[in-house]
Write a structure and sequence with these properties.
Layout: H1 10-31, H2 33-40, H3 44-69, H4 74-94, H5 98-121, H6 123-126, H7 132-160, H8 163-184, H9 196-199, H10 206-226, H11 229-237, H12 241-267, H13 270-291, H14 295-308, H15 313-327, H16 332-360, H17 366-390
């Protein structure tokens, strides 16, 4: 009997660590939004623009940088972009005003989308086919671990020192992860010749396009609330500042569970199961405005949203990678980026919708916007499943 092959090899751990620092760098703004607003003397909604700005640049830039990356040696491109990522976080730590902090976040958004897209293309090289869904789910889980440990730890560092100290900590962690990637990932990859514009033919496939729309609406739904999660917890649930990190930690546990369940779904007809997850997300969102009148019930519903918000990741990503590997081998890096850029388009759109609801209605009613967007995601994944089955 042959020994069971390990799933969590050093290269896999390196990719998970990469997604952890990418997620911490991206999400830390949500955890320390009031402190950034106060420290830079800007309104809370203006500081919230850092979230939508990051996501929008990430979403717009990623498909083009990913397509360019498909023509380069992915290992060395990953290392070079990793160095830019380190410098970008240090820039955030020392930025003296909102404009320069925004510029630093734009640089981070451009490189972050490409980094996670390139990292996904290493998965077939560093693991067996039967472990692919598990590894993809754990790479996405690195973002959940960022919510569990990175954001609460950054919030704690902020309360002890300042929000700038949190970015210094991210910079140091990023340097360690970059070293781990350098020593563990394979340097040589087989290249499939493909022109830059030829790769975008991938996006004409209705299954790919519906995958993009599904992730877009799913992320939009979650981030209508998540962008303003900290003020909702403080103002409507009544969480004291000293317990905020603990509650964010518990929410992160729910998100980690979401990613791990996502991996299981990807192995067992995940597109079919996603239809029910979006129904659950829509129900939670529509109930939330009323649940907030009873703090424990509101917190329970928010935790339920955390469990549901990332179930889409692995089923969609594995399905897109399978399609690209079989039918568009010259555009695998671009295919790997579709989940990331559509998710971040969703983050940008969701945070803008959330800001509009906060400005013109009331923060309590964020769930109504999230519920409508979850129904849009449901419609898209329903069509995607039908087209996938027909093939």
């Amino acid at each position: 009997m042959q020994p069971k092959e390990k799933v969590f090899t050093l290269p896999v751990i390196a990719l998970i660590a990469l997604s952890f620092v990418l997620g911490t760098s991206e999400f830390i703004v949500v955890g320390v939004l009031p402190e950034i607003a106060q420290g830079l003397s800007v309104p809370l909604t203006t500081a919230g623009g850092l979230v939508s700005m990051f996501a929008f640049v990430y979403a717009v830039g990623t498909p083009f940088t990913a397509a360019l990356a498909g023509r380069c040696n992915r290992f060395w491109l990953l290392i070079c972009l990793g160095l830019v990522f380190v410098v970008g976080n240090l820039w955030c730590a020392v930025a003296p005003n909102y404009i320069l902090l925004s510029a630093a976040r734009i640089v981070l958004a451009i490189v972050s989308g490409t980094l996670i897209s390139i990292s996904m293309t290493f998965v077939p090289q560093i693991t067996r086919v039967e472990h692919r869904a598990t590894v993809v789910s754990w790479v996405f889980a690195g973002f959940s671990l960022a919510s569990i440990f990175g954001v609460p730890l950054g919030t704690t560092i902020t309360h002890m020192f300042s929000w700038r100290a949190a970015f210094v900590a991210i910079t140091l962690c990023s340097m360690v992860v970059l070293a781990l990637l350098f020593v563990s990932l394979p340097r040589q990859q087989e290249k499939v010749p493909s022109g830059l514009l030829q790769q975008f033919v991938l996006l004409k496939d209705s299954r790919i396009f519906l995958s993009i729309l599904t992730v877009f609406f799913g992320a939009s739904s979650a981030y209508v609330l998540y962008t303003y999660l900290t003020p909702v917890l403080e103002e409507y649930i009544g969480i004291p500042s000293r317990f905020l990190s603990l509650v964010l930690l518990l929410f992160g546990v729910m998100v980690l569970l979401s990613n791990l369940l996502s991996g299981r779904m990807a192995r067992k007809n995940g597109l079919y199961a996603l239809r029910f997850s979006y129904i659950g997300l829509a129900l939670c969102m529509f109930v939330l405005p009323f649940a907030l009148y009873v703090a424990p019930l509101g917190l329970l519903v928010i935790f339920g949203i955390g469990v549901l918000m990332y179930l889409q990741n692995s089923p969609i990503q594995v399905n897109v990678l399978d399609i690209a590997t079989k039918e568009y081998p010259g555009a695998v890096t671009l295919a790997a980026s579709t989940n990331s850029f559509s998710f971040n388009f969703g983050i940008a759109f969701g945070s803008v919708c959330g800001s509009a609801l906060v400005n013109f209605v009331d923060m309590r009613y964020l769930g109504f916007g999230g519920g409508l967007l979850a129904l849009c995601a449901l419609g898209c994944v329903w069509l995607l499943y039908q087209k996938t089955v027909q093939r």
